[in-house]
Amino acid sequence: MEKKMDAINNIEKRIGALEKDVNKQFVAIEDRMKKVDERVTRLKDKVDGADIRAARLSERVQELEKERNTLRDNVSYPPSQSKRN
């Protein structure tokens, strides 16, 4: 009977140690998840910022293309006007 009690106590100690280890692992995983979530949030912010900058650059390129076309038209207009005169 005493051997059974010792065995049960030993099993209970091992289960307690296992629970502690599982809890430590759980806490470590939660910490890592928080860090990953923070990184993902920062990356999302950077991507959003990059999207905004890309949209601005696209608008600027369109403006410059219009300006280039206007300048091209202005440059080609005087020679044709002088030929007409």
Automatic annotation (TrEMBL):
Organism this protein belongs to: Dreissena polymorpha
Name of the protein: Uncharacterized protein
Region (Disordered): 63-85
Highest rank taxon of the organism: Eukaryota
